[in-house]
Write a structure and sequence with these properties.
Layout: H1 3-16, H2 29-38, H3 44-57, H4 61-76, H5 82-99, H6 108-112, H7 119-128, H8 139-148, H9 156-166, H10 172-185, H11 217-228, H12 232-237
């Protein structure tokens, strides 16, 4: 993609999703932070199922800290890595109460100092809760950015930097959500739904998936080459050229 096609692709995404947001459920910044911590290597659906039971019972740092690891575990044991996440959540609640007066810090360094919070989680909170132009690169964003050409890189940090460089300022706040949702429902990992994609004509991805029932471009090319290639039977039946007189011995 060049700057013009990137801008047009983002314009189309903005038109289709004018108010994108996370699919995690929460009522305040603290609950968003906890939900994002729990969502590592887990689906939003599984996290929402757990937090719908947890947050009405304990939805503040003090309330979750009072549960302790043993009290928190039953609420989140359906989520992957729940044992380590329970320890991190309790430690994070304690640190928020002791060092930040019970409020989730808005500073990146302070966020990343919380147990269980890395760069991706910090970016989600900074973007979703505080409206900052941060781009969290999860597996969906990484895939979509590289496939489309919006921001290519071999690591999540490289992709994040490429996206921040390539995306015009007016699109940066919402870009994170557009790319996640586009990757989750359209530009899927195993079989992207290219025939439904609103930016497929701008995308750099070469192996676009055709509509169901239609052969792919690769299959079409293979069929065309096979049709041009003579069969072994035809080659066997073709007459051999007789040697010319000047070559007879």
């Amino acid at each position: 993609m060049n700057p013009g096609t990137r801008a047009e692709a983002l314009r189309r995404l903005a038109e289709a999703m004018p108010a994108p947001t996370t699919e995690l459920e929460y009522d305040n910044v603290f609950q968003l932070l906890i939900a994002v911590i729990l969502s590592a290597q887990a689906t939003d659906v599984s996290v929402n199922a757990a937090t719908r039971k947890l947050f009405p019972v304990a939805g503040t740092p003090a309330a979750i800290l009072a549960l302790g690891v043993d009290g928190l575990t039953p609420f989140i044991q359906t989520i992957g890595l729940y044992r380590s996440k329970a320890k991190n959540v309790i430690a994070t609640c304690r640190q928020i109460l002791e060092e930040h007066a019970g409020e989730v810090p808005r500073d990146r360094a302070a966020l990343e100092a919380l147990p269980g919070v890395g760069r991706k989680t910090a970016n989600v909170v900074l973007n979703t809760a505080f409206g900052e132009p941060a781009i969290a690169v999860d597996t969906h964003v990484f895939r979509v950015a590289n496939r489309t050409g919006l921001g290519k890189g071999r690591t999540p940090l490289a992709v994040e930097r490429a996206l921040l460089k390539n995306i015009p300022a007016q699109f940066k706040v919402d870009a994170h959500h557009w790319l996640i949702l586009h990757g989750r429902y359209t530009c899927q990992a195993r079989k992207p739904r290219c025939w439904t994609c609103l930016i497929q004509d701008l995308c750099d991805y070469r192996h676009k998936t055709p509509p169901p029932g239609e052969p792919s471009l690769v299959a079409k090319r293979a069929t065309g080459k096979a049709a041009q290639r003579p069969s072994l039977k035809a080659a066997a039946k073709s007459p051999r050229r007789k040697p010319s007189a000047q070559h007879k011995v």
